[in-house]
Specification:
mainly alpha; 86% helix
Length: 98
């Protein structure tokens, strides 16, 4: 971190109350959680199954490794990992507010 960036970050931390920073962080995590859950819901409807069933049924292979299906699989998996990560981070951050 350069000196100028470090000084700017330090100034921001001093001028913005920690409660506001925490609230902004919590809101960002909630926004991500909503987006990830929407992706999961969309994919469940599109394929008529959960991701676990999608993988165990080997849908990607069944559909001849088409780019659309492989791309959906990657996006779906990313969304589910995102849900786990964000829920963990939310628990940590909200626990610090108490």
């Amino acid at each position: 971190m350069t000196t100028n960036v470090g000084a700017t970050a330090e100034k921001i931390v001093k001028e913005i109350p920690i409660d506001e920073v925490m609230e902004a962080l919590i809101n960002e995590y909630r926004r991500r959680l909503i987006r990830y859950n929407m992706t999961d819901e969309f994919m469940r409807k599109k394929y008529g199954m959960t991701f676990d069933k999608f993988e165990s049924s080997n849908v990607v292979k069944e559909r001849k490794f088409s780019w659309d299906v492989e791309s959906d699989a990657m996006e779906w998996e990313h969304a589910l990992e995102g849900v786990r990560y964000v829920e963990h981070k939310l628990k940590d951050v909200e626990g610090q507010r108490l």
